[in-house]
Design goal:
The protein has 15 helices and 48 strands. It is an alpha+beta fold and about 900 residues long. Strands 19, 20, 24, 25, 26, 27, 30, 31, 32 and 33 form a ten-stranded mixed sheet that branches. A hairpin with a 5-residue loop joins strand 25 (about 340) and strand 26. Helix 4 (about 490-500) crosses helix 15, helix 7 packs across helix 8 and helix 10 runs antiparallel to helix 11 (about 680-695). The protein is globular and about 85 Å long. Bound molecules: beta-D-glucopyranose (BGC). Beta-D-glucopyranose binds near residues 478, 487, 594 and 764. The site of beta-D-glucopyranose has 10 residues, from helix 4.
Amino acid sequence: MINPPCRLRCAYQVNPLGVAPDRVRFSWALAAGGSGGQHAYQIRIAPGEQLGDGGHLSWDTGRVESPRCTDVPYEGSALDPGARYTWSVRVWEGGEEPSAWSDPAFFEVELDNSAGWQASWIGLGRIRTVAQPPTAPGPYDGVVKALPPSPYLRREFYVPGAVTSARLHITALGLYEARLNGGRVGDSVLAPGWTDYGQRVQYQTYDVTSLVREGANVLGAIVADGWYSGFVGFDAKRAGAMYGDAPELLAQLVISLTDRSRLTVVTDDGWRAAFGAIRHADLLMGERHDLGMELSGWDSPGFDGSSWMPVRCKPRGTVRLVADPGPQVRVIEQVPAVSLTTDSSGRYIADFGQNLSGWVRLHYNGAAGTHIRVRHAEVLDADGSLYVDNLRSARQTDEYITAEGPAALEPRFTLHGFRYAEISGCDRLDRSALTAQVVHSDIAVTGSFESSESWLNRLFTTIDWGQRGNFISVPTDCPQRDERLGWLGDAQIFARTASYNRDVAAFFAKWLDDIDDARLPSGAFPDIAPRLNLTWGGAPAWADGGVIIPWTLYLMYGDRGNLERHYGAMTEWMDFVERGNPEFIRNYELGNSYNDWLAPGDDLTPPELLATAYWAYDAELMSQIAQLLGRPDDAVEYQALRSKIDAAFTDAFVATDGSIASGSQTAYALGLHMNLIPEDLRATAAGHLVAAIEAAGWSLTTGFVGVGYLLPVLSSTGYTDIAYRLLCQNAYPSWRYMLDHGATTIWERWNGWTPERGFQSPWMNSFNHYALGSLGEWLYRFVLGIEPAPGSNAFDRLVLRPHPGGGLTFARGAYESVRGSIRSAWKQGSGRFSLAVELPPGVTASVRVPSADASSVRDEDGRAPQSVAEYPGALGAAEAVFEAGAGRHEFTGPALD
Ligand code: BGC
């Protein structure tokens, strides 16, 4: 019998406890040992904990003739809000006999937005520590004195019998940490995450069955300002003006008892509040704890809360409460300090060896009443002290006044971007007392890469650390200064790299809703989401992310759900651009037009060229999306639009010799990547691009936008050697230049630091901005050759074509696709090239082995290639073509010359 399917996911999550009915979509992978690919499947779903024989089913698909195993939407009877459903799937591969049923998986449905909630918002309203929060950041002490302490909220309740199950549904306007009977609920931090709180608030659901007990119980939470009422973005005011002026909590604990009765505990006016150790907590400024003020035992029964204040309570209102589509933010890793030294003023400086996002945890065992201050920075100044000018008004400082006994000092409601920490106030400190807690959205690793060059391996991890440092509820530009905003331009150019590196399907699906919430009345996609009170939108390469990101998710995960969900928004966007640009050159409605942001050098790309190229790209993608969604008329219309933009583009920007206006590298990269250059001029245009690179001293001159396409375009036009030349370049501007100057995350600017002028302007100089790391996709798609075939679905078919070069003697890596692990490993030496590939069940590939003598390449069984073709990676070279299915395969032949 065929092994049952595995890796069952609902809405890209494993057994999620809250899924909106319209997000219930299933995927699974085929187990090893099958006979070569699914041709039919059957899903069965039943309410409750079991899928017993003969019980009531909410959905039985019966046998569906289809190879589809990703993104299968639920189409059964209406799902009950709050209820649990169990599901299982079996498949047919090859013959008529089905596999065994998979192990059951489950999901629980989002609560009904109105009838499902009995809870009210509770809090203490705006708290004074000084009369007014400052409107501009001043010296540190002035800023933080104005910050309010964090309210602790508690409610005692009695459970009259034994508990069979308990669920806590909880959220905050602001941030919360939930407590139940003296323990922490769950392990997420910075919950509920960032959304436009005026429109949509996420809540989390925790299984707290083991924490609730018969008898007296206490449910509690600490709340903090977070994105809701703290400092956020680069507007140096607290966000009060944008969302609200004090945090509030909303919680509903549903307990089922053995006698089948139910008890519901909700936030209401029966709750009480007090202030404890957390004297202030702010995402940008940091946190202050006075441990002597801790309310020990406050979250357990028996604590005397009679002196606690009543809470302000207000009805739930009309804001949409949605189940968190995941992934939650967590402490993902702990990094020990690699050194502890002192600076010229005698303060301790800890180096964690890695620029990261999170905070420092300090184990302290000294005198009570000691005032310890921990400041954070990405880099050090020449004298060994922290360099903090580039943080702008973000203070990134945590303070503790210690109490009796040993303690692990760490904040709870803040986030710092740092590699170094300065610790002052304690006279003795050991390096082993310090760890950096790495905090980000829990996006699983899906990509790996290794080569014979250690600097290249470092570059790979540097790109990944940049993603880790910024994928925190939304994809931010940077995690340290007073900005940390979800810029669409950065995200769209990096989206492909991001989704090879890590599983970002659920992460981006959530953010696409943020983008939707941030759309402008004109139909323009925003430049930033959530967009706070900013009305910036429509910027080329930024706003276009509204089309490109859902498309990228389709490409990587086979996700049609997002395409359907946001199709309306995308068409409104296309209408908006066309309305403003009837001549088919995108000259108008460019918003802030950041163009090829931070491109070094003088060969600036004309903004209308970049804008028009993106418009053409959108039109092309929209035509494919419409086709996929079964809207052939729209597809034809977008194709017609595309042709008009093509014609206008060629007319305006492409000369008869294949040169493109301005001659910038980015202009060529866009023109070639977006297929805007007539076929017969492609080769000459690629030649012009190489000439432009040579004229720049074999350096790149691309900014945020062009950089993402440059290497892929070079490799697909026969210039992999030039792509490697740029990759291996270590003179400024280059990725290696960053590495050689200490980068452990990708810098915002090519010249963040130079020997000639030191640090760039502190007003814009982040050392952790992932955008220039968008070359990551080239490592997977070209160096390893893990590339989906045109028209394929979530890697069901690949064109596996490695691109050796750059003096590498080997490169190997993998991509954990939704169908399983795809591996590619090649090595070359002594004139021989060999390639090993591994494909998961149900995946086929056309494997292309570049060779000086393609017809003499052999597979592991000595078989000759099915055919020999022109190798697009190097001019005039050939490749051996083999057809491969699931399993491991090896190919060997003469190396390319
Ligand atoms: C951000 C960028 C962003 C840009 C817009 C900057 O302040 O840090 O990453 O894309 O503004 O050009």
